[in-house]
Every structure is written in C-alpha cells, then in structure tokens.
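[retry 2/3] Dehydrogenase: previous attempt timed out, resubmitting with same input.
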Amino acid sequence: MAKLRAGLVGLGMMGRHHARVLGSLDGVDLVAVADPDGDKFGAANGRRLVSSVTELIEQGIDYCMVAVPTGLHEEVALELAEAGVHAIIEKPLAHDTASSERIVAAFEKAGLVGGVGHIERYNPALQQARSRIENGDLGEIYQVATRRQGPFPGRIADVGVVKDLGTHDIDLTAWVTQRQYLSISAQTGFKSGRQHEDLVAAVGKLTGGAVTNHLVNWLSPLKERTTVITGEKGAFVADTLTADLTFFANGQIETTWNEISQFRGVSEGDVIRYAFPKPEPLRTEHESFRDAIQQGEMRNIVTFAQGLATVRVAEAALESALRNETVVVA
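[retry 2/3] Dehydrogenase: success.
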C-alpha cells in the first residue's frame, strides 16, 4: 500500500509535536508543512515549508493535520474539504456551534474523513477505564468528576478555558461512559483581565441518569489532570498526567473497629493500581486517523459529529453561566 501524503498547517506549540509524530509514522509521508509566521521551532526538519493551506494543498497531500488557532479552524477546514483533502483538526472542532456545523456538512458532502484531536481519548488510563467499564467492572455509572487545572497559557487568546481545556473533559466523559449530555449548569470567572473566562465549575446530567462535574482553570501553579468515575461496584481514578488507573473496590467485609469505620466507612474493599502498556497518546491518535483513511476504521477516531456535540455542550455551559441557570443541551 502506498504511503499517505500528509501535510501540517500550524507550527506552534502543538504543531511541532504533530510534526515529530507524523514524520515518523508508518505508512505516512509528511511531505510539507505550512505556517505564515514561519518555522520558529524547527518543526519542518528539512521538509518543504510553505506559508498557506492553499500552497500545502498544491503539494498533492491526501490529508492534513490542522493545528492553527481555533478561530481559523473553519476557514482552513472548508478549503481542505473543497480540495478533497481529509483532515484531523486540533480540538475543539471550531470556535462555535455554527462553524462546527458547517465543517461537518462540508466533509460529509465531500465524503471525506474528518477527525478532532481530543487527545485524552487516547490516554492509556482512560482507554483502560472505558474498556473495563464496558466489561462491567464498575456496574452502573453514578458520577464522573474531573479536575483540570494549571498555569495560564499565554499562547491561547481566541477562546476561554471552557472551549480550550474544558472540551477535553466534556469529550472524555461522554466517550468513557458512552453517554450523552442532557443538561449542564456552570459558573465562570474572569481573573486574568482578558475577555474570555479562565475558570469554570460545571455540573451536568448524562443519559442514563449519571451526574458529572468539571472543575477547570488556568490559574493554578498546580498542574492536575484527574478523572474519578464512580459506579455501583467502586470507583476508577485516572491520572492522565502519569497515565495511571487505580480501582477502589466496594468491600464486602464489615469494619468493626468503630474509630476506623467513622473515617473509612463500614465497607472498605481492595485498592488496585493496574499495570498496562502506555504508548504516547499523540502517536495513538495519529495511528487511529491513518487507519480511518486507509481501512475505513472509524471507531477509534473522534469524528467531526462527535466534535460538534462537544462544542454544543461547551456553548451550553457558557450560556448557563451567562444566564445563571441550567441549560438543556440541544
């Protein structure tokens, strides 16, 4: 099978990592990269460097990795669709629902494969969690709680923390539980002096009755990426910084020592930190998209339709904060 000819547009913080992976991906030839501001990180590594997506398309690419600022996603995606080029776009799919819908429609009309770079889906800890949930290890899912915080990223100026960091948690929650959001209620804060929010606390309701809550901010010196999934048989704790997954089982043995039971509850079970392979999530993401193009294997990518659903939830959260009321997700 001939190698896929890949292009990359956007050579910023994430673009350089995409270039590294695409440049060493089996079955793929990274033929050219594009950025109007040049290649300040040296990501091209000797490959052809052009200044626009138009010039990139002229190199005869089969698909393109889009790593430009969120506000430019629609413009770039529609040009790729018009040229018949498959695309994987860094999350979120676009800056708003309307733009996301236009991207989805354009790629569906052209019969092209489109994927969104929600990289947390490819984290080994969350992949293990989803597999074990499918296997019934937690039984019925009651709650998903996420905490995602860290220092302020000066490079991101066109969206706030909800659409940047928060979309990670929205997507992974829907994916790992295989549920959809029904409603969401959120509060936001503006502490850094910019027009977009830099912290959010959100509570959502999923199909099947599970509750989810997300605490996200750009204001903490502590970097944290934690997901706790609680079910009828116990809880999974996934740390996506270390790709660790720990299972806290509900116990069947009564704790008769009263002083201890007051702190640990009357039923305490085993605690297991699972051992499993931990490949780089970004490489797994790119391998999955390559396979989607070559083999039509769509189950392992974040489709544009799924990316659109995440943007809708993010916008509902922002609407909730603005109106100070719970919003039903379309």
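[retry 2/3] Dehydrogenase: The chain has nine helices and 15 strands.
[retry 2/3] clearing retry counter.
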